[in-house]
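It is worth pausing here to work through a concrete case rather than discussing structure prediction in the abstract. The textbook approach is simple: state the sequence, then state the predicted structure, then interpret. We follow exactly that order.
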Amino acid sequence: MLKNLKKEISILTKKFEIRKFDEVINEALVILKKRDNDFLWNLVGLCFQNLNNHDKSIECFENTIKINPKNFSAYNNLGISYKKLKRYKESETNLLQSIKINPNYVNAMVNLGNLKNETYFFKESIKYYNKAIELNNKLPSTYLNLANVYQTINEIEEAKKYYIKAITIDETFTIADQKLSMLEKYDKDNSHLKSMLEKFKSKDLNDTKKMYLCFGIYKAYNDIKDYQSSVKYLKLGNKIQRGLLKYDIDFHKSLSKKIKKIFSKINIKNFDNKTDHKKYIFILGMPRSGTTLIEKIISSHSKVSTISESNFIPEKIFNFLNKDFENLIEFLKSDFENDYKEFIQSFNIKNQVLIDKTLINFWYLGFIKILFPNSKIIHVSRNPLDNCLSIFENLFDYQQGWDCDESELAEYYLIYKDLMEYWNELYGTTIFNIKYEDVISNPNKKIKELIGFCQLDWEEKCLNFHNNNDPIKTLSVNQANKPIYKSSMNKFKHFEKDLEILFKKLS
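Step two, the predicted structure:
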């Protein structure tokens, strides 16, 4: 029996490695009905985790621990699943327990670093990453994570140092090349550009690694204004990325229709006008539209903190959109606000006015109006040609699908535009619509209007936002830490012929 079990475990492990998660779950559960086994429960939990079914994964990891309370790997995995559900306290408890059982467990150290980074405890995050490096100094991903934190807190030279360290350990770790490229200002003789071009010739790189190099090389050629060379790598990088992703624009078309249908039935007056414990400011719009600049300006105020792009609200609401209408209403009437308050209490923030800059909240603006009726909603827009170029030329940490194909990017933008027009018809007087170009052209006037809309007392430091050293977790970290500049306006003109499909659909 033991021999057969070992054989079965070996087979299932190999299936897990090639990502046959459903198969592993089904076959493992048959075995587990006959005989409990901590390894198998852990394996099934990892399968559910990879399928983003974190409630199920938690059940499996807890079964693992019941059988073997010393299974430090299961505690680590529990910590990951709780973090995915944004249950940060439970995540930390389990990660610490993993380390308590095995003080030399690098994975748990790294995951604690990730947790502290996500919740704005940056000093602690750095501490755990450094402990992980002490245990194993040959993992480029740990140096990458450490560099990302230093970039977030605007310690750019430290960030560069650790990106370079990651590349030194593994020259094929090209995500570090791409990250480094975003911090460099290139000229024709830059050694890093030459290094990336040499690497790109290698036959040993998979598509993902080539994709990172493409975006890095694009950035370098763009800096030196060699637009012909830059666009070649930009298009190739996006083509590779699109080939790696499963996406259908019809998903977002149907989502827009579904949301509009829901709100055609909702009478907002039926909901109680609750008083929020905190003053919430929701900043939303398309990526690369200027939302980080607006966040930076408002968070420069002495009474304001930010949790940046939390994704809490979209993740909670999206799961209910396929429910029947009555259940959705009950959900909206439930204690959602308290759940949100509990969530933000996990962050290292102090002020009573809070910014949530989750961009995709534009999908759920109507729900926000119901859930947080006293909140301030700021919608940031930008010239669609510049906006979509900036999306197309950047590689985001989270996979989207629509952002790496010219035609789909344009269609998604038009869906967003249509939905925002719908929200403005419903709630127009309560939404502050601000254009990026207006802020750039007339900062004094627009920033004062912005602060006034937020019902905050005027503070001169909001005009000097670039002196604000608060962390920034988005791709705009470098731009937002500089005084206002106009060089990002009309940048699309360099690529009008090369990105004709994108621009024609938007014009």
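Step three, interpretation. The beta strands are 279-285, 304-306, 353-356, 376-381, 431-435. DSSP finds 26 helices and five strands in the chain.
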